Amino acid sequence: MESPAPMPFPEPHWRTKGEALRDSQRPVITPRTTGEIEAQKRTVTIIINAARLNLNAGGFEAVIEVEAVR
Fold it and tell me: What is the pTM of this model?
């Protein structure tokens, strides 16, 4: 039994700077469960709160205990 011929590579498409910038700003959408999305939202909120507290404290590090996040 002979193996099939390899598929040819597609022609390269060199993107312009504008195309690359537009593509980098496009949101990446991947299928996820609701729980994963909620967990991601909570993580982002905690990081933002920590960054704000760090800036307000004049650059000192702070330990933050989070009981609930909206």
Answer: 0.17
3-state SS assignment for residue 61: coil
Query: pLDDT of 40-50, one tens digit each?
Result: 666 555 665 65
Query: For the chain, percent helix, then strand, then coil, each to nearest 5?
Result: 45, 0, 55
Rounded CA separation 51/11 (Å): 45
Q: Would residue 15 count as lying in a domain?
A: no
Separation between Cα atoms, residue 70 and residue 63, nearest integer Å: 19
Domain that holds residue 64: 33-70
In a domain? residue 60: yes
Spatial distance between the Cα atoms of 49 and 68, rounded to a whole number of angstroms: 12
Q: Is residue 20 part of a domain?
A: no
